[in-house]
């Protein structure tokens, strides 16, 4: 249906959630990730985005160790299926239970440890805009061919919801154009994916929402 409309599948979102306190649960997350990779391959999606996971109460370092181990375990499956994996660092507000990978540095270190052409990073401005190492880490990722995806939206100073109150480009404080410049200088030539999780915008007239996305994309990204 998508292809009939001239649309291309960029990625399947999402795999991940590797850490768990019990080893049986870590094992079943590997099975689940292999299933998701197969699903991506069946759809013809070239990539799976990873929301890596975290366990409340478990140290973030231990969770990152389990994440690295989990990705290492499923990478051969991804390579065999021809599906790339992209670690999406999440804003530290999600460190308790959604991802222990919160910076480009941490994501890059996992890529560096595992060294696979099938593993890279999904850079989402919402999650990483505040990081003083962002420009340098984007350059490092570009030099190593780790830039797999670029997601844009905006960070509003006042948010009603931690997940679903993202702003249209220009509604918040992210210097999207500047970051896009870093991304392009680092060699990324893929899509700029507009990703606006928003209860507010989802309840509006969707044609009007789409028109606002197009306008804000032109003006602010
Ligand atoms: Zn994203």
Q: What's the short story on this structure?
A:
The chain has 221 residues and is an alpha/beta fold.
Largest sheet: 6 strands, parallel
The tally of helices reads 8
Compute the number of strand runs: 6
Strand fraction band? 5-15%
Helix content: 40-55%
The shape is globular
Mean pLDDT: 97
Straight-line N-to-C gap: 29 Å
Helix and strand run: EHEHEHEHHEHEHH
Secondary-structure-derived class: alpha/beta
Oligomeric form: single chain
Cofactors and ligands present?
zinc ion
Radius of gyration, Cα only, in angstroms? 17 Å
Strand order of the largest sheet: 1-2-3-4-5-6
Low-confidence sequence ranges: none
Characterization of the model:
Helix 1 runs parallel beside helix 2. The two termini are 29 Å apart. This protein has a six-stranded parallel β-sheet. It is 44% helix and 13% strand. The chain has helices at residues 23-43, 60-81, 104-114, 125-128, 134-143, 176-185, 199-202, 206-220, and strands spanning 12-16, 47-51, 84-87, 119-124, 147-152, 192-194. The chain has eight helices and six strands; from the N terminus they run βαβαβαβααβαβαα. The model has no long low-confidence stretch (mean pLDDT 97). It has 221 residues and is α/β, with parallel strands linked by helices. It is globular, with a radius of gyration of 17 Å. It binds zinc ion. Zinc ion binds next to loops.
């Amino acid at each position: 249906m998508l292809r009939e409309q001239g649309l291309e599948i960029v990625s399947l979102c999402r795999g991940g959630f590797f850490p768990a306190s019990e080893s049986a649960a870590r094992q079943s997350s590997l099975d689940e990730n292999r299933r998701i990779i197969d699903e991506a391959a069946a759809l013809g999606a070239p990539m799976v985005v990873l929301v890596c996971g975290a366990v409340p109460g478990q140290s973030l370092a231990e969770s990152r160790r389990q994440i690295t181990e989990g990705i290492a375990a499923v990478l051969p499956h991804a390579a065999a299926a021809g599906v790339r994996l992209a670690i999406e660092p999440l804003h530290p507000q999600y460190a308790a239970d959604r991802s222990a990978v919160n910076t480009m540095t941490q994501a890059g270190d996992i890529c560096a440890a595992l060294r696979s052409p099938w593993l890279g990073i999904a850079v989402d401005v919402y999650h990483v805009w505040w990081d003083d190492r962002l420009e340098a880490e984007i350059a490092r990722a570009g030099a190593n061919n780790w830039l797999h995806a670029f997601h844009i939206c905006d960070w509003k100073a006042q948010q009603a919801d931690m997940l679903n109150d993202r702003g249209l480009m220009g509604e918040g404080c992210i210097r999207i154009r500047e970051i896009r410049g870093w991304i392009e200088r680092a060699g990324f030539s893929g899509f700029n994916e507009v990703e606006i999780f928003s209860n507010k915008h989802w309840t509006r007239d969707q044609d009007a929402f789409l028109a606002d996305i197009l306008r804000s994309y032109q003006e602010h990204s």
